DNA sequence: GTGGTCTAGACCACT
DNA sequence: GTGGTCTAGACCACA
């Protein structure tokens, strides 16, 4: 079992259990956590995050419903197998959401679709420069 | 005074007052509503949208705080002049953030920049279809 | 809004929230509760059943995830539309579960499949007699 | 003493000790295990199943309470004589209950008695396939 | 030790 | 009024 790097914004409008969920999900999708890995126990995580047991319970419970983990009463919670296509489709979905948001914001700013394409290229360019 | 075209998703997770706000904002930014134009009264709008007066009050109140409208007690609410450049730069910023996120998520999903452009066009297409 | 007839076995090994869920589900599937009907509020139900608010919350939350109700914050919880095919498939599923259990129990008792068929006919017969 | 064929679903919602119990019971009822036969020791079984000794202890303890086995301190656990008729009638009762439920659910789903018979055969078929 | 459920309060945002 | 979240305990069954 590895220690999870979970950072909580206690004052955020995003519920704490949601933050825990999303960060574990992200770790699964980025392959940081892999199949059959044992997660910290509900109580341990609650202690670590200085949060109520009910809160971590809710997060783990939701993750089980969404198919990311299995919980075995009396033993612990384990990462489930997620297949590559599922992960890819998740990321494509995120990409689409981001692009849709860009189109929306851009339209308010009065940008044409052509200008959006130009902007996209520019940002991609900058990204490469940074990586170099 | 013109009748506002406001469409509410009563069961959305986005608060109704927020939906009203955003749609009025968008109308202002798209010049559909122009300076000094009189908005429907809080009570009239509440009746039209079959919504509590508290809800429309909250929306108008927020819009006033954000500087989009001005309330003249006893007369009504009027659209204020908006500082174009400020608004525009704000939204361009949002656009850039969204595009950068799209590039990032897309790269994880293994999408090339070309595929991103194609996706952008597709989503723009779909957006037009919906509006028709 | 109608009062729900929910009977709880507080000492059962079946969790209370599960009992609530199942009884509401059953009411939906039997068309006792119909589309758009307003359910008792989480708090009202908690008072009625002399149960913690968290417990009714959990039940309603699960029902929303499973698609039986919609909850609208600040307004209440409503029965969602369920289509006939969905209901039928649910009941067929229950039928299969019951038959599978019968096969299992029957095999332990040493019954052949033929005897099971005979038993099925007998019970069906008795059922008709009762109805007459 | 014979080696028990026990297959455990470690992540099932059915407790492991329950799974062990049920499989031993089934073996007794099917005459696979017969009177006075010596069962593997609690510790041996725990090793074989890679399970805590507490778990096998619980299973054997329950079996003794239910009258299926007898524990002789210092020697081991033996299968007891089972009262055939009592057991059989119990299971036939369960079978009838399950069939009655199937008839009821089936009638809601609009199934005829003929379709129920067909369903029964299909499920019996599938059961045999799984066992092969 | 583990997870599962439950309580009896609380505060918050929204209608 | 409504639902959403959260706490800080508790008891239970299981491993």
Descriptive overview:
4 copies of one chain form a homotetramer. Chain A is built from 5 helices and 2 strands; from the N terminus they run H-H-H-E-E-H-H. With 132 residues, chain A is mainly alpha-helical. Chain A has a two-stranded antiparallel sheet. In chain A, a hairpin with a 3-residue loop joins strand 1 and strand 2. The longest helix of chain A has 25 residues. The first copy, chain A, is elongated and about 60 Å long. At the C-D interface, helix 4 and helix 5 of C face helix 4 and helix 5 of D.
Measured by residues with Cβ under 8 Å of the partner chain's Cβ, the largest interface is:
A-B, 28 and 32 residues
Low-pLDDT windows of residues of chain A: none
- Which shape of chain A, going by the Cα principal axes? elongated
Q: Percent range for helical residues of chain A?
A: 55-70%
Largest sheet geometry of chain A: 2 strands, antiparallel
Main sheet strand line-up of chain A: 1-2
How many DSSP-defined strands of chain A? 2
User: Over all CA atoms, what is the radius of gyration of chain A?
Assistant: 19 Å
| Terminal-residue CA separation of chain A | 35 Å
| Percent range for β-strand residues of chain A | 5-15%
What letter string, H or E per element, gives the SSE order of chain A?
HHHEEHH
Assembly category: homotetramer
Structural class determined from secondary elements of chain A: mainly alpha
How many DSSP helices of chain A? 5
How much is the average pLDDT of chain A?
92
